[in-house]
Design a protein that fits this description.
3 domains; two-stranded antiparallel sheet; rod-shaped
């Protein structure tokens, strides 16, 4: 059975006439009769009694009538929801990002998006870059926010955040007294490094180029953990400016400016090229890209 048959069924009941139902639906009477016969064959029972020129429900017809109304109500609701997608997006968007990105970069984007599109739910998944890209390929999420570059040609990438990596030290650290500190100065102190990733590679290359090695290296799982360790005096390390803005304001951390080392971190919003974006996802993409720090 289909929606057209259900519409015809209900119109026959309302008009109590096949001919008047045909006029209302702007089809021929034989077409109305054919649709009702087809529906009755599918149901397996007659739906109307046609005695003495009157149209009445059979027992099956009375049972079938609320079912038909419900189905058409669902159809109308569905069509309304689809139409509203072009005016007011709704649904759910799943985004994966690492912990520090979720804490310091995405809240502003999320707040603006929810203010403009309150009917869209945002699902946040915390994961490292490799796991995020894997989830995208498995279609488990809509977007990933990861450090750039991303060279896999299966993805589209939009830069949404630019930040500088600065050398964070505990308050009162001796490096603050060194004029124009260089690599040879910072390797004298215990150094905190991420376990893996682009930042780890960049710093390792810098140390290698100068044929220098930090006094001691402690590997940490995340930028947030590194920040806590720096505050506790366990070492020094490079962190994104956005991650330590509050600590710099309160004075629990300080920054050592180094002319010889300039590190940056760009974050990109990544999604599958072959995946069609919903109206809600397109709206999120638009807002995220607008937040790029020039």
């Amino acid at each position: 059975m289909d929606f057209e048959q259900l519409t015809t069924f209900l119109e026959v009941w309302r008009q109590k006439s096949f001919s008047r139902a045909a006029e209302k639906l702007r089809i021929t009477q034989p077409a109305v009769s054919a649709q009702i016969r087809s529906l009755e064959r599918e149901v397996g029972e007659r739906l109307f009694d046609r005695k003495g020129g009157k149209i009445t429900f059979t027992a099956t017809g009375r049972v079938f009538e609320p079912f038909a109304e419900h189905c058409l109500d669902c159809q109308r609701h569905l069509l309304m929801m689809v139409a509203e997608q072009h005016v007011s997006p709704r649904g759910e968007i799943a985004i994966s990002a690492q912990e520090s990105t979720s804490l310091y970069v995405l809240p502003g984007i999320f707040a603006e998006f929810k203010q403009r599109y309150p009917k869209v739910a945002l699902k946040i998944v915390r994961a490292e870059k490799s796991r995020t890209l894997e989830s995208l390929l498995n279609r488990e999420i809509d977007f990933g926010v990861v450090s750039l570059p991303v060279r896999d040609q299966r993805f589209k990438v939009q830069t949404i955040h630019k930040d500088e990596l600065v050398l964070a030290v505990p308050k009162g650290h001796p490096l603050k007294q060194v004029p124009k500190p260089g690599v040879k100065d910072i390797v004298k102190y215990s150094f905190l490094l991420p376990k893996q990733g682009r930042q780890r590679e960049l710093l390792s290359n810098i140390f290698r180029m100068h044929d220098l090695h930090p006094k001691a290296i402690m590997e940490v799982e995340s930028s947030e953990l590194m920040k806590r360790f720096v505050i506790a005096g366990l070492g020094i390390g490079f962190l994104p400016c956005v991650n330590i803005a509050e600590e710099l304001r309160t004075g629990s951390l300080e920054v050592v400016h180094m002319e010889s080392i300039r590190l940056s971190r760009d974050l990109g919003l990544v999604y599958l090229k072959e995946k069609s974006l919903t109206r809600a996802a397109l709206a999120f993409l638009e807002i995220a890209v607008q937040g790029v720090t020039e």
